[in-house]
Amino acid sequence: IAFYQLNEPQAIKNIVNVTRAAFRPNPGIQTLDGDLLPRGRLLPGFVDSAIRSRCRGPSSGWLGAPVEDVCVRVSQSDEVGEFADPMGGGEAPLTEVAVGGEVFVLDRFWSAIDRQAWDDYGRSVHPSNGLPVAARGEELWLGFPADTFSRGSLWHTGDGGVSWIQETGITDVHTIRFLPQGLTIGARKDGELGFFLRGNGVFEPLDTPGKGDRLEVCGELNGEPVVRADRRAYRRLYRAWWRTWLG
Prior knowledge:
This protein is mostly beta strands. Helices cover 10% and strands 47% of the residues.
């Protein structure tokens, strides 16, 4: 185990380890440098102390600031919902999302959010495992990846968190980002994993090469999208895509 921690697999080395760079000066102290906070992700509150210090509320849950000076928090709700399973079903807490002073309860079971991994492994968990989020003005998108208990889901609000709507057909959300072309996600649409661009209210496949189990919309370069699938990043030049290794 110690050898593994000191010699991470190449797949991890090829992804910038934001956590390792951000914990300072002592890696044992879980305090993030505000200038290096990963954007586009909500991280567990006990890790994201730089944001938690200016956001009211309990230290549990997931929080971040996708919009400057606007706190977003995802936490367990006091409300419960019913679920069915072969054993007869039962009740489980729902998920609460707060944007500034607006609080809304999502019809999504909190128990499906795997915070236990962060509790067990702490800073060795990569920030890309945080909950993906993107914001532009009053419009905010929040995604949940698939896990043992859920296929994941995509939610959006156009009024700053007053009301939320689930996007149908989209599951297992890996990444969300606003690009010049529009809102771009890495997720499953009707079960197909890939990158999708939203236009006229509908997500359509984004013409990108390669497939992977870990997708990331990295940003844009000269007006064209840059995406990552597992260990490889891709950018488009004119009509063709050129492959580049992350280094």
